[in-house]
Design goal:
With 131 residues, the chain is an all-beta fold. It is built from no helices and 10 strands. A 6-stranded mixed beta sheet has the order 1-10-9-6-7-8, with no helix packed on it. Strands 2, 3, 4 and 5 form a 4-stranded antiparallel beta sheet that branches. The chain binds zinc ion (ZN).
Length: 131
């Protein structure tokens, strides 16, 4: 079996893949990108926190136009994972308004983005309906 590498650095792989956020020690704001200071309180100390893998769709957009090579349509969503807002695509769902709704329950899911010559697999994440 080859190696796996996460497509984004805040995706932790392993037996139970999950997202890891940087939480501001001052005000509790959570970020997925690395930053030197909190946008809310200008605090500079952060700790790593595991983000719950289930959540609820807060907002979504069905994207039907994208750069060449990106399959459309797909659903770009903001998912509220127990208080942490996560941007991600909905996967394993029909990308239309009959199958996607705000308030729907979803869970984190990973998928392969491809394998390079060395056998390393790139892994991305999305959210799929919780059934
Ligand atoms: Zn803060």
């Amino acid at each position: 079996m080859g190696q796996q590498i996460a497509h984004v650095d805040y995706l932790a792989l392993g037996d139970e893949p999950h997202l890891v956020a940087h939480e501001c020690m001052g005000c509790g704001a959570r970020y997925f990108d690395r930053r030197n200071a909190c946008a809310g309180c200008f605090g500079t100390e952060f700790r790593s926190v595991d983000v719950p893998t289930t959540g609820e769709v807060r907002a979504f957009t069905i994207v039907s136009l994208a750069a060449p090579g990106i399959p459309v349509p797909f659903v770009a969503a903001v998912v509220d994972c127990d208080g942490t807002s996560v941007r991600g695509n909905l996967i394993n769902v029909e990308p239309d308004a009959d199958h996607v709704a705000t308030g729907m329950k979803v869970r984190l899911a990973t998928y392969s983005l491809g394998v390079d010559e060395a056998g390393t697999e790139a892994v991305g994440f999305g959210f799929e309906p919780l059934s």
